[in-house]
Amino acid sequence: MREKLEALQAEALAALAEANSQQALNEIRVKYMGKKGALTEVLRGMGALSPEERPVIGQLANEVRGAIEQVLEEKAAELERQETERRLAAEKIDVTLPGRKPAQGAVHPLNKVIREIEDIFLGMGYAIAEGPELEQDYYNFEALNIPRNHPARDMQDSFYITEDLLMRTHTSPVQVRTMERMKGDVPVKIICPGRVYRRDDDDATHSHVFTQIEGLVIDEHIRMSDLKGTLLQFAQEMFGKETKIRMRPSFFPFTEPSAEVDVSCVMCGGDGCRVCKQTGWLEILGSGMVHPRVLEMAGYDPAKYSGFAFGMGVERIAMLKYGIDDIRHFYMNDLRFLRQFARV
């Protein structure tokens, strides 16, 4: 049995010397040291030994086990060190190489224009109000003097979710909600930025999703001249001090009288060009004095209070400001287009 143990030790140590992976070490451990391993099989034959031989062979077996386990541990440590060195070499970073600057984002042109418009009106004492994009029919239409079956609803082809819920077609519902929340108190002086939705065929100048900013002022003695002065101030701060405006009669169910507002062409200064179709003017927004019926439904006495409202498409303003000829550029996430505004 002594010869078997010595031969087993020599065989195991030779196998360990050739092992080159942790998997190979585990296989050797199981082959020689496992419950069914070679060393265990040898020790099972100790029952046939004489009482004098057992302690001698038992001591030798422990020595063989210890020798194999020691080499196993040393080999495992060596393989782990080699793996660590290999990974360090593969993952080595050359700190002397020039660095790569991370890609730097920029504010989207629509957000730039929204912030600029907000800053202009905040400077005139307005507050910013917001409301839900999924809106009730009452706030989107009825409270704005557009009852059911009113022909004016055809002006805003809508996305209805249920009979009484739709994606808002303008941000005017925020004005109604603000007036309700004020419960007849004045002054009301707000702008309402946000996305709106209308069923429309997308082309160079139309989109079924776009951004509006509307404004509302309610107080005593508010006149059409206040509206004109406000919009002139806005236009000159947005497009330049030389900008002029003109107001043309129009119709909106929630304002009376109503007016479309044009600015002198930002491209030619009013001389006439291809952009303004030789007229010298560009339409930018709709406006008017708040309809007495709208005031009354919101809890204001139209005999005592008056107000004006206006609304503009942010995309329209941005297209004029930056000379963009296709509204779809704002939504296509083309980095070549967006990078132009990194320093604007």
TrEMBL record:
One Pfam entry name: tRNA-synt_2d
InterPro entries to which the protein is assigned, alphabetical: aa-tRNA-synth_II, aa-tRNA-synth_II/BPL/LPL, Phe-tRNA-synth_IIc_asu, Phe-tRNA_ligase_II_N, Phe_tRNA_ligase_alpha1_bac, Phenylalanyl-tRNA_Synthase, tRNA-bd_arm
Official protein name in the record: Phenylalanine--tRNA ligase alpha subunit
Coiled coil (UniProt feature): 65-94
Organism: Insulibacter thermoxylanivorax
GO MF annotations in UniProt: ATP binding; catalytic activity, acting on a protein; magnesium ion binding; phenylalanine-tRNA ligase activity; transferase activity; tRNA binding
Residues annotated as binding Mg(2+): 256
Catalysed reactions listed for this entry: tRNA(Phe) + L-phenylalanine + ATP = L-phenylalanyl-tRNA(Phe) + AMP + diphosphate + H(+)
Listed EC numbers: 6.1.1.20
Subcellular location: Cytoplasm
Gene Ontology cellular-component terms listed: cytoplasm
Origin superkingdom: Bacteria
Upper taxonomic lineage: Bacteria, Bacillati, Bacillota, Bacilli, Bacillales
Domain Aminoacyl-transfer RNA synthetases class-II family profile: start-end pairs: 111-340
Record note on quaternary structure: Tetramer of two alpha and two beta subunits.
HAMAP family: Phe_tRNA_synth_alpha1
